[in-house]
Amino acid sequence: MKGFFKKFASIAVVCGAAYWIYAEFYADSGEKTVYKTVPVEIMDVVQTIDATGTVEPEDLVDVGARVSGEIVSFGKDSNGKEIDYGSEIKEGTIIALIDDEIPQSDLLSAKAQLDMAKASQESARANLLVAKENLKQAVRNWDRAKRLGPGDALSQSAYDAYLSEWEKATAEISVAEAKILSADAEYAQAQAVLKEAQRNVEYCVIKAPVDGVIIDRRVNVGQTVVSNMSASSLFLIAKDLKKMEVWASVNEADIGGIKPGQDVEFTVDAYPREKFYGKVGKIRLNATMSQNVVTYVVEVVTDNSNGRLLPYLSANLNFIIEKAEGAFAVPNAALRWKPEESDYPGAGELQVPEGMRTLWVFEGEGKIRPLFVKTGVKDGINTQVISPELKEGMQVVTGVVASASASSASTNPFMPKMPQRKKANNSTSTPAKK
To answer: pLDDT digits over 204-213, tens only?
Structure first.
């Protein structure tokens, strides 16, 4: 009898061990779905339009030369140093000198021509006085000749001579007056030439037209500038670098969402971890087309009181279309995911209220349930969701990690199966918060 009990005890121990092994390694290897979830977060969701652009000074003045000549020297800036890149200057400051030898010679020649024109003018007036006196004498002689008439006292030839003398004297008055007009015109022309020569001498001294900073110096001492139809460019002056603009190229598909006064955030490569802020100033209407793509230039005004923004930096801009602060948000994948019928019977026939979307909430132990929400602002990655049932940290499903049936289907049925340890937790793998 003792042997029977010993055998029974041994069989019981073996059966118990077998049951433990089954429960430990096989009992939970059924087809239970493992979900991938993320928590509902509270964050700022911002919808933006992205664009690229260039930082530009708000006002630029291109200083040129109106005369040809050699650059002989540069002026001094506000600190007493020679004008160079980045020099701060005041309006009226001499910034460059051009050799004025030829303009000075032209000025002397113009003065001489003016003196000659003035002398010609005085001579013409004097000739008019002489002509008038000659006319008076001719009038008197002609009057006597008319009284006497041709006859014994006055021959016909003498009579005709007095007549011709009177006619000639009368005509000489008109000639003298015409010469005065010509002399006056020559004098006015000489005055204009003199003014031009004086102005050319003044143009040899290049002065700053505004207060500002030298952005570009395009000449060197000893270089000859040639002025033809347009003035040669010597300096580029920014009036005020404390106010900058960003000229952004915006695609025609996005331009409808941009309005003057709109908030803009942007970064530059020089300070990749720093954000700058501005507002839309104006939208230029002269669109450009490149490879069948139409773009518009949008001017974004920004403050640069700290001087960190330099002209012509490349900028990456985000035009803020809509913003939800402190909103419940989930990844877009959570709104796209739908369960299989095996995971949630009737999922395909679920009636979603009009204007709402479905989130699938993970409740633990492999259970999920639908939650109807309204959607708000989208930023391309996350979407604002609205529902009175939402709570921060609530787990919503974004996908499936794996299932037992899928793993068994992917194995070779003829290969020996390794025992699998029972998982301690059937919940989900949840990614860390952003």
So the answer is: 999 999 998 9
